[in-house]
Specification:
It is a single chain. This protein is an alpha/beta fold. A five-stranded parallel β-sheet has the order 3-2-1-4-7, sandwiched between helices. The N and C termini lie far apart (71 Å). 23% of the residues are buried. Its EC number is 1.3.1.76. InterPro entries: Met8-like, Met8_C, NAD(P)-bd_dom_sf, Sirohaem_synthase_central. One of its GO terms (biological process) is sulfate assimilation.
Amino acid sequence: MDPQSVERPPSVLLAHRMQGHPVLVVGGGVVAQQRLEKLVPTGARVTLVADHFTAAVEQTALQCPQQVRLVRERYRESHLNLEPYWRLILVCLPSGAANHSDDAKGQSKSESDSEKVYRDAKRVFGAQQSVNVADVPALCDFYFGADTSGCPTGKGEGQLGSMQLLVSSNGVAPRYAALVRDELVRHLGELPLAQSLDRLDELRAAVREEAPGPEMVAVRMDWVCALTDRLGLRGAASMDVQEELKKFKDYCKERGEQVKSPSQDN
């Protein structure tokens, strides 16, 4: 049976906070540039290792010198020591390139350059090191998927704002996942998502300030969830934050919960 045809279990889709964290990209071509386009907006510090870089990669490095470092050398294991750790290691090399080396017994073996980077990373940092080898699902600890970062929302009043969506095929059909992503964005473009997120963010911060104790966490979450459901996808954008905050205070008093009084501000 073809191992690629075996049904894969679902992945856990996570939003990684990358600001300030180092990422190693081995490769300097089109795929490496695509990775840069995803990573630079997150605030990650990206090191690219390759003996050649495309003009687009060079331009990105010039525009973001504090975030992007180019190492103009063919990959060696010692490049893994350029940082004390790597949040992610991304391998963007042609999968057919062969690297010849000797094993512990002195016997010659052949593996692709991509496989070598993967094995080196696991040997140096351990099995927990997250590595993604482009176009080789078997050597991917995670998949990028098709996300909405930098994706146009079309002609509507809406923009995604801080909302990010990810569609993943679990490495089966990345381009098809991108088509699904584009279709979703076309529909969402008419919604006032950015304004809604801003209002809800402001309200949640105010609610936390009024009822800050850990014993109030469940109360806050339940109330905000119920309000969000009631407002729906369009109602949150026009919400009066102060009016809803007053309702929250009344709700807490009805339940006998303690909220901060005006005198506590002094």
